[in-house]
Amino acid sequence: MNNVPIISGKKWKDVQVVRFNQSFSISFHQQIEYMFEINENYLQLNESYLFSTIAKRIEKFSASHPEADIIRLGIGDVTLPLPPSVLQAMHNAVDEMGVKETFRGYGPEQGYAFLREKISEVDFRQRGIDISPGEIFVGDGSKSDTGNIGDILGEGNVVAITNPVYPVYLDTNIMRLGKSSQIVLLPCGEENGFLPEIPSHHLDVIYLCYPNNPTGTVMNREQLKQWVDYALENRSLILFDAAYEAFIRDNEIPRSIYEIEGAAACAIEFRSFSKNAGFTGLRCSYTVVPKVLTARSAEGSNISLNGLWNRRQSTKFNGTPYIVQKAAEAVYSPEGQQEVREMVSYYMRNAEMIREGLTEKGWTFFGGKDSPYIWLKCPGGMDSWTFFDRLLQECHIVGTPGVGFGSKGEGYFRLTAFNSHERTAEAVRRIKQWEY
Amino acid sequence: MNNVPIISGKKWKDVQVVRFNQSFSISFHQQIEYMFEINENYLQLNESYLFSTIAKRIEKFSASHPEADIIRLGIGDVTLPLPPSVLQAMHNAVDEMGVKETFRGYGPEQGYAFLREKISEVDFRQRGIDISPGEIFVGDGSKSDTGNIGDILGEGNVVAITNPVYPVYLDTNIMRLGKSSQIVLLPCGEENGFLPEIPSHHLDVIYLCYPNNPTGTVMNREQLKQWVDYALENRSLILFDAAYEAFIRDNEIPRSIYEIEGAAACAIEFRSFSKNAGFTGLRCSYTVVPKVLTARSAEGSNISLNGLWNRRQSTKFNGTPYIVQKAAEAVYSPEGQQEVREMVSYYMRNAEMIREGLTEKGWTFFGGKDSPYIWLKCPGGMDSWTFFDRLLQECHIVGTPGVGFGSKGEGYFRLTAFNSHERTAEAVRRIKQWEY
Fold first, then answer.
1. Of B7, B201, B322, the CB nearest to A179
2. What biological process terms from GO does the record include (chains A, B) (predicted)?
């Protein structure tokens, strides 16, 4: 029997030696005591992810009402097929994968240069923002990227998220830090226009998502500048989720946090191809980690977050599929840009229909102007889940209960603009006729 | 200014209040003190990932020797194009994505039922192993899956990996736990046939990879049974990486750990489509987490690891692309199975060529029989990196230095069977003629 060497030589667990072949001779109690441990933080999570809960309620309703024609304005999934230039790029890429000379195996974990260069050029440099290809990491979705970013952050941080919030920010932080950690909720309600106020406390890490999911609200340049200034002053890190930037129509609303001076020194930005180009089933995103963004290690060295994220991605990720990256590249062609603009316009016409319908109905709502999300106040003082159930049972419309995004979402409800014109119009018609 | 509520109410950081608008009035020293923290474990990692280091050395050599015809037998990347049935499935899937009626957006995070059912049937049930679709999680690669599995495990575990080892197991554990944690190395050398010995200590989590990367060795049924029995007795968790099972030719070698009685109660298995079906650039894998596999929480409840992994994947992953899952499904068709068998045979013919060449050369080596990897002992007592540099400079052949996989790999070198017959034959010819 060999002596097992230990890397650190420091913390060998003080347990009784259990020899193989003394098969099952140890007591049950001992077995429990020496069992491997799970990440107990998971036990502090809500039982299931919001959208799984909703899916189950729909399933149950459908099973007992198979005739019901349900309209889904709930989950933020797109419905238009992929645009022609994206399809053509994928067919070509599939052909390349079938020929020895053009077959592609492992690609760079950070993404292919052809895509990183296009992103840098079209999404940033053409808009006067200096983000280089080496600051862009292609990923398989913003859910993964915003979920995994915590890997490179320390456990001592005070982490701020808004309330209500996209549940992934909260859940992934509970998974990593537990509820007993320093997770801070920044309340967003009608009283502050659903925008978090600059706190008087020190915050280390701040998640911001604008245009916002779920409230559909946006931050103008001055409002975002206040957060950048706060972060620079406090040496905080802003995690800026710009997954919905394509829906911004008002030129006064920043599309990237890097439009704000100094943001490159304090912010990581997340972008997605899901909503603008319909990639929810294709899976492609990118994360911007500027090279000027540094932290200070415990021993006082400057540490590049670009380097840390690169190490994380190189070690725990093997790149987005080549064919998907070729699809994303096609989005940046002149035809692709035109097709994507048309898709966004299509969805924004839906948002307008919903806005018009709710206005006529006399309900209070927010968003839907520079965002595909409409955040409505449940009528008659209904709570979010009551409204969900009644809207499902009486109108056969699925939305998302606001309380699913946090306690400050109670009494609110999220509708999305991602269905078809026909279905959206039908949903609006049903809502208008609804006597609740 | 609102009071920021805290989830736990417990650990609010004791820092000076920094108010916005007192712009930059705090001292530099204070700024450092209150800066956000990074995951300092990353600073304990080697500077760069093994294969990035190799890539840089090749780049440097190529720059100064542009005429050199370099043969790559290093990284485990495949070279044959994707088989026809896989290509056809992808073209069909791309077409589906272009039509409203068949477009697919977000899929189930766990993978589509059509693929999970095929995997369950062909890879397990047809071989007499009872693994259900609900125990299978489709992922985007074994690097991600084996890297992310640590998310659901506790920080108090004694984690064992072999030495030498696939670097991802070690690096991801250092990222999560730091070097000062209980990471144990199980030495594998010529003295034990490169198979770890059953330890006399208690281990909580044990990574095993067979057929092994990098040594190309395999575990027979009796050897694997000893580990399963050890894990059952010690209530340990085995993380079994079977990425190379398709290369097993000897029927006495288990292709899945679940061929061993009791393994479902103590093991998670990782599988990949990368090497058998050439998916290194497509990205598809799966993880098996049996429903009978439970852990005990600190407060004494039984916790399903299937449930924990499901929660992890639902929260931090949005599924493998639909077109890639359709490609994987095609691998299970009769034509796909035949094509995949031919690809594996092709690569194994390369392994045979290398084995024959090295035998003739009189070098000592291991593996290459039930594995695409040949693990050779560097001749003349050379260390791994010296051999790497000389083989590159004098033969223009790239391999992987054994020491890159751990200290026990020093003096060894890994060659892979993934190049073409022609290039492999040429590499063997160069090695035979080499006077070192």
1. B7
2. lysine biosynthetic process via diaminopimelate, diaminopimelate-aminotransferase pathway
With CB atoms and an 8 Å threshold, state whether B318 touches A183. no
Q: How far apart are CA B217 and CA B200, in angstroms?
A: 23
Per residue in B395-415, pLDDT tens?
999 999 999 999 999 999 999
Mutate to test the interface with A, among B12, B14, B22, B38 (most CBs of A within 10 A): B38
A272 is annotated as contributing to ligand binding: yes
Number of domain units in chain A:
2
Identify whether residues A230 and A248 lie together within a single domain: yes
Per-residue model confidence as pLDDT tens digits over A284-328:
999 999 999 999 998 989 999 999 999 999 999 999 999 999 999
Same domain flag for A58 and A124: no
pLDDT given for residue A53 in this prediction = 85
Contact of B94 with A91, CB cutoff 8 Å: yes
Task: Enumerate residues 6+ apart whose C-beta is below 8 A from B3.
Answer: none
- Whether residues B39 and A202 touch (CB distance < 8 A) is answered with no
Q: Do B153 and A303 touch (CB under 8 A)?
A: no
Do B308 and B388 lie in a common domain? no
Contact A321, B324 (CB under 8 A): yes
Kindly tell me if the per-residue pLDDT of A12 is higher than 50.
no
Paired strand residues for B304: B294
Closest CA to B16 of B1, B27, B5: B27
Q: How far apart (Å, rounded) are the C-alpha atoms in residues B22 and A232? A: 12
What Å distances lie between residue B429 and A350, B368, B398, B424, B425, CA to CA?
A: 67, 18, 14, 9, 6
Cross-chain Cβ contact A316/B148 below 8 Å: yes
Q: Do A153 and B40 touch (CB under 8 A)?
A: no
> Is B143 labeled as ligand-binding?
yes
Question: What are the pLDDT digits (tens) for A268-277?
Answer: 999 999 999 9
Q: Dump pLDDT digits (tens) for B130-158.
A: 999 999 999 999 999 999 999 999 999 99
**Distant-in-sequence, close-in-space partners of A54: CB < 8 Å, separation ≥ 6:** A74, A75, A388, A398, A400, A401, A404
Contact A185 B7 (CB under 8 A): yes
Nearest CA in chain B to A15: B202
My answer on whether B205 and B102 are in the same domain is yes
* Tokens linked to A142: 């913003």
Q: Are residues A65 and A90 in the same domain?
A: no
Please give, rounded to a whole number of angstroms, the shortest distance from the CA of A61 to a CA of chain B.
20
Interface test with B, best of A10, A24, A37, A293 (most B CBs within 10 A): A37
Residues of chain B in contact with residue A315, where contact means CB-CB under 8 angstroms, are: 49, 143, 147, 167-168, 171-172, 175
Q: Is A163 helix (H, G, I), strand (E, B) or coil?
A: strand
**Same domain flag for A116 and A209:** yes
pLDDT band at B48 (very low <50, low <70, confident <90, very high): low
Taking the C-alpha atoms of residue B164 and residue B407, their distance in angstroms, rounded to an integer, is 7
Q: What interface predicted TM-score (ipTM) does this complex get? A: 0.91
B345 within a domain of the structure (yes/no): yes
Q: What is the token pair recorded at B121?
A: 């049937």
Amino acid at A89: A
More confident residue, B20 or A396: A396
B283 annotated as belonging to a binding site for a ligand: yes
pLDDT at residue B1 above 80? no
What is the average pLDDT across A177-194?
91
- B34, A235: Cβ pair inside 8 Å? yes
- What is the four-CA torsion angle of B5, B8, B10, B14, rounded to 10 degrees? -50
Co-location of A178 and A304 in the same domain? yes
Task: Write down the pLDDT at residue B35.
Answer: 87
- Same-domain check for residues B129 and B221: yes
The closest CB to that of A4, out of B91, B201, B235, belongs to: B201
Chain A CB contacts of B305 under 8 Å are: 38
**Band of residue A25 on the pLDDT scale cut at 50, 70, 90:** very low
